[in-house]
Design a protein that fits this description.
Blueprint: H1 2-19, H2 32-64, H3 71-80, H4 87-100, H5 106-140
Helix pairs in contact: 1-2, 1-5, 2-3, 2-4, 2-5, 3-4, 4-5
Protein name: Nucleotidyltransferase
Amino acid sequence: MRSYNHFKRAKELLEDSLMNYEPFNSQKDYTEEELKSYDALSFRFVKFVEMALSLMSTLELYLFAEKSDTLRNRLLRLERAGFLKKGELWLQARALRNEVVHTYMPEELERLFANMIELARELLSESILFEKKVLEALGEKNLGIGG
């Protein structure tokens, strides 16, 4: 399942950004070089959320032979099926993802990065169960995850 591999890679990259994170200071005048790690973190957070939601969509179709009309319904379905503990986190992640692309002011960036770090850690924790259940589901149906 290609979407699983994309999810896994996005997760690894986000984890790497979190390990090297220094809190953003809106009072500091960052150089372009210093801003690269924040740009990478933003991109990796957005990519991780996108890849996770894409995998959830693929998984839902695979498991239930249909897709929900809304993300909220998809998350509820996957939560009921035991793939997620806190589906609401992914709605928060999508909202924050949307905010990332529209935030430019340093004061807003300080708050945004603080929220992103907190939510990213929760999502990565949540994704442990999700990933385990995905692999179990794929194994039960005798499918590989490569490709």
